[in-house]
Design goal:
By secondary structure, the chain is α/β, with parallel strands linked by helices. The chain has a single domain (26-189), classed as Vaccinia Virus protein VP39 (Rossmann fold), CATH 3.40.50. It has seven helices and seven strands; from the N terminus they run αβαβαβαβααβββα. The protein has a seven-stranded mixed beta sheet, covered by helices on one side. The longest helix is centred in the middle third of the chain and has 14 residues, at 130-143. The termini are far apart.
Length: 208
């Protein structure tokens, strides 16, 4: 595998062994970052279900400030550590052994720092655990600050049943892969986040 553009353009890194991990292809990665353009520069990047770390590493090469790689499979975690070291991004890459669903539930942005979150779960997650994927997306939309970016990759399940407010997403098809991009911070997103922040606690819930 290789970095497509930016600071480490052309540099190679290790791919997965076997077929259990499905890395984002060069074509999809290149097309995705063409959509994002310069908007990725200076952002914190979170690569959920990181696999090989290819997307987060590409983001670092293209100017992201830091990257957090979240992956629960220990073989993949070891692979990401190697790839971060190979590309000499140890000072800008943090690798976490964690379940993405649980991690997002506890995630809180740092000082309202704009963040780009890449979400590429195993394709069967959309079939077996669609409710968990939807909840994860809703949590991220609610938590992420203005000017953040949310990206989802799937085999072809990205419709109104999965993506909250489908009309706010830019959905593209690349062969058998779909990519959906949402730029947060538009009026409706900001309004929804403000209303959620200002909503009073339930009467039977904790106060203060």
């Amino acid at each position: 595998m290789r970095i497509i553009a930016g600071q480490r353009r052309g540099h190679k890194f290790d791919g997965p062994k076997g077929k259990a991990t499905r890395p984002t292809s060069d074509l999809v990665r290149e097309s995705l970052f063409n959509i994002l353009g310069d908007s990725i520069e200076g952002l914190l990047v979170i690569d959920l279900f990181a696999g090989t770390g290819a997307v987060g590493l590409e983001a670092l090469s293209r100017g992201a400030s830091h990257a957090i790689f979240v992956e629960r499979n220990r073989e993949n975690v070891a692979l990401i550590y190697r790839n971060v070291a190979t590309l000499r991004y140890e000072d800008r890459g943090r690798v976490l052994t964690a379940d993405a669903y649980r991690w997002v539930r506890g995630f809180e942005p740092i000082d309202d720092e704009p963040t780009a979150v890449f979400l590429d779960p195993p394709y069967q997650e959309f079939e077996k655990h669609a409710d968990k994927v939807i909840q994860l997306l809703e949590d991220l939309i609610r938590k992420l600050p203005a000017r953040s970016i949310l990206v989802v990759e799937s085999r072809g399940d990205l419709d109104e049943a999965v993506l909250p407010d489908l009309e706010r997403w830019d959905v593209r098809q690349y062969g058998g892969t779909q990519v959906a991009v949402r730029f947060l911070g538009q009026d409706a997103d900001a309004s929804a986040n403000t209303e959620a922040d200002q909503a009073p606690p339930p009467l039977d819930g904790p106060v203060g």
